Each structure stands twice: as structure tokens, then as C-alpha cells.
Amino acid sequence: MSVHLIIGASGQVGEHLVHQASVAGHTVVATYHKHPVVGMQQLDIRDAKATETLIAQVQPQVVYLPAALSHVDYCEQYPEETYQINVMGVCNVLRAVNAVGAKLVYFSSDYVFDGKAGPYREEDPPNPICEYGRQKVIAEHQIAINMYDYLIVRTTVVYGWERQGKNFVYRLLNTLKNSEILKAPVDQVGNPTYAPDLAKAVVELIDLNKKGLYHIVGPQRANRYEFACEVARVFALDGDLIQPIETFELGQVAPRPLVAGMVVEKAESVLSLPLLRYQDGLRIMVEQNTAQGRIPEARQE
Ligand SMILES: NC(=O)c1ccc[n+]([C@@H]2O[C@H](COP(=O)([O-])OP(=O)(O)OC[C@H]3O[C@@H](n4cnc5c(N)ncnc54)[C@H](OP(=O)(O)O)[C@@H]3O)[C@@H](O)[C@H]2O)c1
Predict the structure, then answer these.
(1) Domains of the chain: which residue ranges?
(2) 236 — alpha (psi -120 to 50), left (phi > 0) or beta?
(3) Contact 157, 193 (CB under 8 A)
(4) I need a labelling partner for 35 at 20 to 30 A (CA). Which of 15, 43, 154, 249 fits?
(5) Pocket-forming residues, ligand 1, beta carbon under 6 Å
């Protein structure tokens, strides 16, 4: 048993990492930034001293870093502000992790690619087309050149029940419940990834002492419209409220890698179980919702 520190545990991926690392028998210490959670410590990774102090106090063997400002359009509009978190903050963490001789688990994205020829493998060269993707590439590079023991996990379109209720499935469910129209692009392709399954796979890779770069996503690619229609079908909501649209019609600030998504063969060759298809992840969500009651309201951004 070892001590696992999860920085950014109040977010979607972090919440499930806490659970899976605990289930695997590790002692878990977790942090939030702006959304307090009982039992977690506050940390802003832009504060190098506070980051160093916390990691020195906790003396973890593994530090997971799902913390990020991952709002793609916000990164495009405020590159300097977001760079402070997504690159400088990561550098603060990697220095502190090196100082205690721990392993770093960093979370990246298929937005490191240009989306011209997905799905992408680990050996494909990054070529980001938006600020968020550029920041992810720089952070990955900083980790690779400054650390010996690290795992970089690239994922995409993460969904599942989450404390903050802001992923695509929440937004869709709330829109459909209110009988409103949701426009979903037919030309943005990725692999919907069930958050608990992602966290389980990552903890297993750690327990197998894997290092380097892994793509961890659901095994099937879908465009956003197809995924949205499947959500409506599985939750028995009115799929006619979902309108297919082209990305350019959405007027999003940041360019999107369209033909993206990733190949998951490398991870699946070492994991004990295949990663979950999105049809199965959504079905589990429905079962849990039936057991627990109503769909939580999505947080307003
Ligand atoms: N979700 C996806 O579809 C997706 C796809 C590809 C890659 N990723 C990557 O996976 C990682 C996790 O994503 P997620 O969906 O879990 O994101 P999330 O739900 O937005 O969570 C982000 C976490 O980072 C924390 N945080 C933000 N700024 C911080 C700061 N300055 N110092 C310390 N903590 C800070 C947040 O804390 P508070 O909420 O308490 O402020 C929160 O716990 C990110 O690196 C993201 O880029 C996600």
C-alpha cells in the first residue's frame, strides 16, 4: 500500500481517481482549488511554494495531476492566464514531485493533434491547432524532459456522474429534460470515455508500474451527434430535440481537431479488462441514476 496524492480531485476525473485508488487499497490525499470538498485540502498549483510544501508534507509515492483549466474556448481567449495553470502550474508540480522521488501521472488530451487523420496512436506526432492543445503539448514535453518516473495519460470526451455536473452528458440531459433544442456537431469525432473506467485503468497502470505515454479512451469513436442520440436513447429522452450541425456553424472561439480520437491498443494490451464501450458506460449511468434518484442539475458555467 502506498500514498497517492490527487491534485484536482474536486473535478470529474479526480473524483473517480480518489475512489479507484482507495478501492485499490492506497492511502489517498486529495486537493480542490475553488470548489471545496469535505476531507480535501485546498491547493492552487500556480503557488510553487504551497505546492512544494504540500507534497513534502504528504510524501506520496504517486501524484496524479488531473488539475487543469480545460475550457477550450477560455484558453483561446485568455492564453496567458491559462498558461499559468496548464503549463507553469504543471512545472511547479513536477519539480515538487521530483524532490520527493515520486511518480507523476499527468492527464492530457487528443487536442494535442490537429484532427486531420485520427484516430491517433501514441507514436503519432502532436500538432495542436488551438491554445489548449498547445499548452497540453508543452506540459507533456516539460514532464518528459524533466522527469524519470511519469505516466502521461491522453483521454477525450470524458463522461459519467460527477460532483460538479458539467460534462457533455449532463448538459445534454438537462437540455432535453427542459424540452430544449441541443445542437450537436456531426463532424467532431472522438472516443467517449467513461470516467470511472478511465480512473480504474489509470490506477491499474500505476499498480503495474507502467511509465511513459498511454492513450486511455473508450474503444469506439463517435461524432458528438451520434453520441448525443445514444444518450437520449439510453435515458429514454426525446432525441428529436438533438439537431445535427457542422462545427463551423457553432461559432466556437477555438478551432477544434475534428477527425480526432485515439487508438487504445497499447493500454488494452496490458490492462486486465477492455475499456468500456460508450453504450455500456451510459447504461451503467442509467442504472446508478435509477438506484440513486434524480439526475443532478448541471452547474452553470
Ligand atoms: N473532461 C474531458 O473530456 C477531458 C478530455 C481530455 C482531457 N482531459 C484532461 O483531463 C484532466 C481532468 O479533466 P476533468 O474533466 O476532471 O476537469 P475538471 O472537471 O474541470 O477538473 C479540473 C480540476 O482542476 C482543479 N483546478 C483548476 N485550477 C486549479 C489550480 N490552479 N490549482 C489546483 N487545482 C486546480 C479543479 O479544482 P476546483 O474545481 O476545485 O476549482 C478541478 O478539481 C484535465 O487535465 C483535462 O485537460 C479531460
Answers:
(1) 3-160+193-221+260-277
(2) left
(3) yes
(4) 154
(5) 8, 10-14, 32-35, 43-46, 66-70, 85, 89, 107, 109, 155-158, 164
Amino acid (1-letter code) at residue 237: L
Query: Which amino acid makes up residue 258?
Result: L
Q: Tell me the pLDDT band of 1, cut-offs 50, 70 and 90.
A: confident
Q: Write the DSSP symbol of residue 88.
A: I
DSSP per-residue string spanning 214-282: EE---S--EEHHHHHHHHHHHTT--GGGEEEE-HHHHT-SS---SB--B--HHHHTTSSSPPPPHHHHH
Nearest protein CA to atom 20 of ligand 1, as residue = 11
Residue tagged 448538459 (cell numbers): 171
Determine the Cα–Cα distance for residues 288 and 297; give it in Å rounded to an integer. 16
In the chain, where does DSSP find H-type helix? 12-23, 48-58, 72-77, 79-83, 90-100, 131-146, 168-177, 195-207, 224-234, 247-250, 265-268, 278-292
Cα R_g (the chain), whole angstroms: 18
pLDDT, mean of residues 230-246: 96
pTM for this structure?
A: 0.96
- Residue 109, CB-side half-sphere exposure with 13 Å CA sphere: 31
**Alpha carbon separation from 161 to 106, 164, 237 (Å, rounded):** 22, 9, 17
Q: If residue 31 lies in a helix (H) or strand (E), which one and from where to where?
A: strand 27-32
- Residue 115 in 3-state DSSP? coil
The CATH code of the domain at 3-160+193-221+260-277 is 3.40.50.720
pLDDT of residue 292: 62
